[in-house]
Write a structure and sequence with these properties.
Blueprint: E1 5-8, H1 12-23, E2 28-32, H2 35-44, E3 47-51, E4 54-58, E5 62-64, E6 71-76, H3 80-88, E7 94-102, H4 109-116, E8 121-127, E9 130-135, E10 138-143, E11 147-150, H5 161-166, E12 171-173, H6 177-198, H7 209-225, H8 229-232, H9 235-245, H10 252-258, H11 269-278, H12 284-299
Parallel strand pairs: 1-2, 1-6, 2-5, 3-10, 6-7, 7-8, 11-12
Antiparallel strand pairs: 3-4, 8-11, 9-10
Helix pairs in contact: 3-4, 6-7, 6-9, 6-10, 6-12, 11-12
Ketopantoate is lined by residues 187-188, 191-192, 202, 242, 246, 251-252.
């Protein structure tokens, strides 16, 4: 008998995982915020995944945080700023051998969750898959990619990676997941805030080459100082490559601001600046970028944390 996949968060990535796991015949249950959301979900009849223009409905059972029954395997698929609180609600249900898979972008939320659930094995993930919500309970699979999973304190891969293979979820077990998360964080810090401040697509940053280069120098210094030299390697070239390759796209932070959604700034630029300050490292360009971004968000009445 397969272990049930509990999915916390019926948003873009949560739906992308839940529908593919369910399609492979694996037991999946979706944990929703409250009774009203559960009723709305049940009325919709399930989750809809749109792939290459084709929609498919998956009647994944829904439940609430305080529903009965233990949770052994939990995919945490909410935003970084919601993760700790969302997992806290589930603590009474976590089995002694529970495993949590943390899909959050950036850094900081994973450690907060791990501290809240010290008995659980926390597996960190970094994904380049892309999905967005087209409406309630309806998600479009927008970009194929890969998900790297790893556990910095325990290198053995879990046996349930087979479930991901059976579900067609491209993945790899990564012995250096923190390096991957730091590298992605550095890329996001060099690109996303500037696209918000300059109001441009990623490709618009080609006109701000010097500003990007100065940030890359400081991010490289930060990564080296905090024990992540591999994440620092050739960072500027990688940032330039990503800007070229995604020139026509709007960054995720740009889209959050444009849609008046809360950003994950505290887990990206905010995290980088606070680690720098902990290491007594002065990074004037990065700090100025954070001040400008916070001001920009506040001027628009958006949360700046
Ligand atoms: P999302 O906003 O689409 O979904 C999050 C869901 O979690 C929402 O439905 C929200 O209601 C739910 N939620 C929050 N707190 C909850 C609680 N206590 N109980 C139940 N549900 C709760 O977010 P997303 O785009 O799927 O992103 C999730 C994470 O994955 C983020 O850190 C994001 O940066 C990262 N990520 C997203 C993508 C993508 O393409 N969407 C790609 C890579 C990484
Ligand atoms: O991950 C990204 C994002 O938009 O969040 C890229 C495309 C790499 C830009 O930083």
């Amino acid at each position: 008998m397969s272990t049930t996949w509990h999915i916390l968060g019926a948003g873009s990535l949560g739906t992308l995982w839940a529908t593919r796991l369910a399609r492979a015949g694996l037991p999946v249950r979706l944990i929703l915020r409250d009774q009203a959301r559960l009723q709305a979900y049940q009325a919709a009849g399930g989750l809809t995944l749109v792939e290459q223009g084709q929609a498919s409905l998956h009647a994944v059972p829904g439940e609430l945080a305080d529903s009965p029954g233990p949770i052994t395997r939990l995919l945490v698929a909410c935003k970084a700023y919601d993760a700790e609180q969302a997992v806290s609600q589930l603590l009474p249900r976590l089995a002694a051998d529970a495993e949590l898979i943390l899909l959050q972008n950036g850094l900081g939320s994973q450690d907060a969750v791990a501290a809240r659930a010290p008995q659980a094995r926390c597996i960190y993930a970094s994904s380049t898959e892309g999905a967005f919500r087209e409406g309630d309970w309806r998600v479009v699979f927008a970009g194929h990619g890969y998900t790297w999973l790893g556990d910095a304190s325990h290198p053995t891969a879990p046996f349930w990676l087979d479930d991901l293979s059976a579900s067609g979820i491209p993945h790899e077990w990564s012995a250096d997941i923190l390096t991957r998360l730091w590298r992605k964080l550095a890329l996001n810090c060099a690109i996303n805030p500037l696209t918000v401040l300059h109001g441009c697509r990623n490709g618009g940053l080609l006109e701000h080459h010097c500003e990007v280069a100065m940030l890359c120098l400081e991010l490289t210094e930060l990564l080296q100082r905090c024990g992540q030299p591999a994440a620092a390697e050739d960072l500027q070239h990688e940032v330039e490559r990503v800007i070229q390759a995604t020139a026509a796209n709007y960054s995720s932070m740009y889209q959050d601001v444009a849609n008046r959604r809360r950003t994950e700034i505290s887990y990206l630029l905010g995290y980088a600046c606070s680690v720098a300050s902990r290491h007594r490292l002065s990074l004037p360009n990065l700090e100025r970028l954070q001040r400008r971004l916070v001001e920009h968000l506040q001027q628009r009445g958006l949360p700046s944390d």
